[in-house]
Amino acid sequence: MNKKTIFITGGAGYVGEMLGEQFSKRSDVERVIVLDKEGRPKSFDGNNKIVWISANTSDGTWQSRVASYNPDVVIHTAWQIREMYGKKKLQWKWNVEGSDDVFNFAFSTPSVKKLIYFSTVSSYGASQSNTFEHYFKEEEPFIEDMYLYGIEKKEVEERLRNKYEMSKEKAPQIFIVRPAAITGPRGRFMRIRFGLQSALSGQLKESIIHRVISFMVSYVPATKGWVRQFIHEDDVADIVGLFAFNDLEGEYEVFNISPPGEPVYSKDMARAVGKKVLMVYPWIIRIVFFFFWHLTRGRVPTSKGGWKFYSYPILVDGNRITKRYNFNYSCNSKDAFYSTKGRYEKYVPEKSRR
Predict the structure, then answer these.
(1) Pair 83, 149: CB distance under 8 Å
(2) What angle is formed at CA 84 by the lines to CA 78 and CA 89, rounded to 5 degrees?
(3) Nearest to residue 26, comparing CAs of 232, 173, 177, 237?
(4) Burial of residue 189 (number of CB atoms within 10 Å: 0-12, 13-18, 19+)
(5) CA-CA-CA-CA torsion for 307, 310, 314, 316, nearest 10 degrees?
(6) Which residues are registered as beta bridge partners of 257?
(7) Statement to judge: residues 120 and 148 lie in one domain
(8) Strand, helix or coil at 256?
(9) Tens-digit pLDDT profile for residues 126-169
(10) Do residues 216 and 276 both lie within one domain?
């Protein structure tokens, strides 16, 4: 058996750690090289297949060491998602220039045959003209011009495409995924982060600010345009595994990854967390976001443009991967959001399972 060596950036993050843990258990994997600027997760303790590298993708210290292992597949998940208050230039260096470094490594290292990059649906743009009826497809342009996360991801996709067009003859096979909101028992119960689900469900207890926010959302505040799509973490891992471990057609493939079926509307969200919906106007959301962003100096992730994503819909068509590679999602958005089923259900307290 020809065993693979996988290189994952962002290995301390939600997705990167999950992929590292699961792929290292495969019999056809020799080793998993995991890089992150944050500390090594405890889940990797005692795992002899994991090679941990403490580095930032943009610091230029990791390339020779990773190359010495001759990686077959590069999976780029590393990203500073939440905007750092007053540090846009540093964040650009980490995210955009760091991505350039990862892509340059993948293109210039002979052993690398595949590059898998995590993009986002946010770059399509949360616009007042968006509707519940329109589902964005992969060929539609990115128009986001206010929310830094969407802007940076748009820039990086453009750079990757340009690099591929100029170097097709030496480019690895490229797969880009634009996921809906990723969730599941691992994300909701093993990695409680500040976010919509944790705030509404009362899981934020780290600080006074978090307790205040949990109190403020005793109702589910929502605009008429509020809607979310979710994809189960198991589906994300399976999609990346499909790309990494199978011989597939295609040279440069882009996929929205979001299951078919109805998305999660505000009434569904409220029902799931046992609360009532409080309808509000977008201008109210905008003011609240502005206030918390500056009052907390970015500790509450309500940066410029973020209010639009709580006010206007972005829905995507995730069927291309089914048509192209016959991939079938394990559950729809509502089940991904609400159910605790999945590979990590054993970590969910029994009273919370559903």
Answers:
(1) yes
(2) 85
(3) 237
(4) middle
(5) 130
(6) 179
(7) yes
(8) strand
(9) 999 999 999 999 999 999 999 999 999 999 999 999 999 999 98
(10) yes
Residue with tokens 């999660």: 264
DSSP string, 35-93: EESSPPPGGGTT-TTEEEEE--TTSS-SHHHHHTT--SEEEE-----SPPTT-HHHHHI
Cα atoms found within 13 Å of the Cα of residue 241, Cβ hemisphere only: 18
Dihedrals φ, ψ of 22, to 5°? -70, -45
Question: Is the domain of 143 the same as that of 216?
Answer: no
CATH number at residue 142: 3.40.50.720
The C-alpha atoms of residue 195 and residue 301 are separated, in whole angstroms, by 8
Residue 118 C-alpha from the chain's centroid: 7
Question: What is the distance between the alpha carbons of residues 318 and 136, in angstroms, rounded to a whole number?
Answer: 9
> Are the CB atoms for 13 and 6 separated by under 8 Å?
no
Domain of residue 205, residue span = 193-226+265-310
Tens digits of residue pLDDT in 273-331: 888 898 999 999 999 999 999 999 998 899 999 999 999 999 999 999 999 999 999 99
Predicted TM-score (pTM) of this structure: 0.93
